[in-house]
């Protein structure tokens, strides 16, 4: 009986490979009233080789040989790593490794995951480590742009994209990213992170060139930089070639007015190009300078006619870090507090002063000064004139003087000081 139930389970599994062992057990129970346990069914499927048989039919069993480039700069693999937050924004690492040596040949941290930041990492790598024969990337938006295709075509690099859903070919760079997480990012977090992208790129560059490149790789048995330098001298591009490769380009048709439009801007071109489709080559950060080409031949510069946008819509620079003004070291409120405290220390506290001691002879001096005849010695009167105004004598006018009530005549008086102080008696 059990053998028949197991044979029925195999038939049900072949009929619908997506049926789980638990579901097959339910179907058998519904049909026969009883069923082996789902674990028994799973062991039976493995014993008869049913799992491998079905996997082979689906194409799920594939052999992936271990591939390694024979020489440096034969193959580069590029990818992006999502990193920590820096200055309040998430950071992304664009990096490329050399398949032969595992050396990090190009890298850059940025705040955006786009083609512009990828090109910045690759451009630095091309200038420092030379040009690869092939660049292997995935199908993310930064890696499928026309700008990257043009850059590789100008420099003679073959651009290869991995198949969607098959990341096996990017295993080497994923292993490098794991090393970055375990050895660099963990130490970055221990120190409190980086204050900005400039510091992050500086620290990462020091770790790559000072630690990673000089540590023996477990699989190659050599340090990445030692293995990279053991090959032939790299093919280095000239600055002119790099500039040409990383210019962006768009194709436009020339109107009857010998005009072309580019991102809401209008430019005037050579009238001989009317009706032709031309290539407009430009720096994404400077749309005021456009070079016109027709069938790979330069046709002069496009003259701006209506310029409303100066930067490509997809060319957004990294946001500038806020500049903290240098502190002056002056604490105005503390200075005011210190000044007021010093003033209060110098002020006389009259309320805390002791009361004055009365003078016993102060009363006699006061009577002498007032010239009171009832007290004191009359001889002291002569000394009492200190501080007193001298007495005056009013002398009447002569008899022949005009009447005082005459309003036409001025009043003439003769006020003279007395020669002596009259006796108070």
Please explain how this structure is put together:
- By secondary structure, this protein is of the alpha+beta class.
- Among the domains are: 2-58; 76-229, Ribonuclease H-like superfamily/Ribonuclease H (Nucleotidyltransferase, domain 5); 247-306, OB fold (Dihydrolipoamide Acetyltransferase, E2P), CATH 2.40.50.
- The chain has helices at residues 2-15, 21-32, 38-47, 50-58, 115-129, 146-155, 171-190, 197-210, 224-229, 239-245, 332-346, 362-370; strands spanning 76-86, 89-98, 104-110, 134-137, 158-161, 248-253, 259-262, 265-268, 277-283, 286-294, 297-306, 392-395, 414-417.
- The strands form three sheets. It has a six-stranded antiparallel β-sheet with strand order 6-9-10-11-8-7, with no helix packed on it.
- Strand 9 (277-283) and strand 10 form a beta hairpin.
- Helix 1 (2-15) packs across helix 2, helix 2 packs across helix 3 and helix 6 (146-155) runs antiparallel to helix 10 (239-245).
- The longest helix is centred in the middle third of the chain and has 20 residues, at 171-190.
- The radius of gyration is 52 Å and the shape is extended.
- It starts with a helix and ends in an 8-residue tail after the last strand.
- Residues 368-393 and 418-425 have low confidence and may be disordered.
């Amino acid at each position: 009986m059990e053998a028949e139930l197991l044979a029925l389970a195999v038939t049900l599994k072949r009929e619908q490979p997506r049926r789980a062992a638990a579901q097959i057990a339910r179907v058998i129970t519904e049909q026969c009233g009883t069923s082996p346990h789902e674990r028994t069914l799973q062991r039976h499927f493995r014993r008869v080789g049913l799992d491998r048989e079905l996997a082979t039919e689906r194409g799920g069993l594939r052999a992936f040989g271990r591939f390694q480039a024979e020489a440096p700069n034969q193959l580069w693999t590029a990818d992006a790593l999502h990193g920590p937050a820096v200055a309040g924004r998430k950071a992304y690492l664009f990096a490329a490794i050399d398949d032969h040596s595992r050396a990090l040949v190009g890298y850059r941290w940025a705040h955006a995951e786009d083609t512009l930041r990828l090109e910045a990492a690759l451009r630095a790598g091309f200038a420092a480590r030379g040009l690869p024969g092939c660049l292997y990337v995935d199908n993310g938006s930064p890696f499928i742009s026309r700008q990257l295709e043009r850059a590789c075509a100008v420099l003679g690099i073959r651009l290869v994209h991995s198949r969607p859903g098959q990341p096996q070919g990017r295993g080497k760079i994923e292993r490098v990213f794991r090393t970055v997480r375990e050895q660099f990012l963990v130490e970055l977090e221990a120190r409190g992170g980086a204050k900005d992208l400039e510091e992050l790129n500086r620290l990462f560059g020091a770790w790559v060139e000072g630690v990673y490149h000089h540590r023996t790789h477990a699989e190659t048995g050599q340090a990445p930089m030692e293995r990279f330098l053991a090959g032939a001298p790299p093919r280095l591009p000239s600055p002119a070639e790099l500039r040409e490769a990383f210019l962006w380009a768009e194709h436009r048709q020339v109107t009857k007015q010998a005009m072309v439009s580019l991102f809401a801007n209008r430019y005037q071109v050579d009238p001989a190009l009317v009706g032709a489709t031309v290539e407009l080559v430009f720096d994404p950060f400077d749309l005021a300078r456009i070079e016109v080409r027709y069938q790979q031949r330069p046709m002069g510069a496009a003259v701006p006619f209506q310029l409303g946008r100066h930067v490509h819509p997809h060319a957004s620079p990294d946001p500038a870090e806020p500049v903290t003004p240098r502190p002056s070291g002056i604490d105005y409120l503390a200075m005011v507090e210190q000044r007021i405290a010093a003033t209060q220390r110098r002020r006389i506290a009259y309320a805390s002063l002791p009361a004055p001691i009365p003078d016993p002879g102060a009363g006699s001096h006061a009577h002498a000064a007032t010239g009171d005849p009832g007290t004191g010695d009359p001889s002291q009167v002569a000394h009492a004139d200190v501080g007193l105004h001298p007495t005056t004598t009013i002398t009447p006018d002569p008899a022949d003087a005009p009447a005082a009530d005459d309003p036409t005549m001025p009043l003439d008086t003769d006020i003279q000081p007395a020669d002596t102080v009259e006796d108070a008696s």
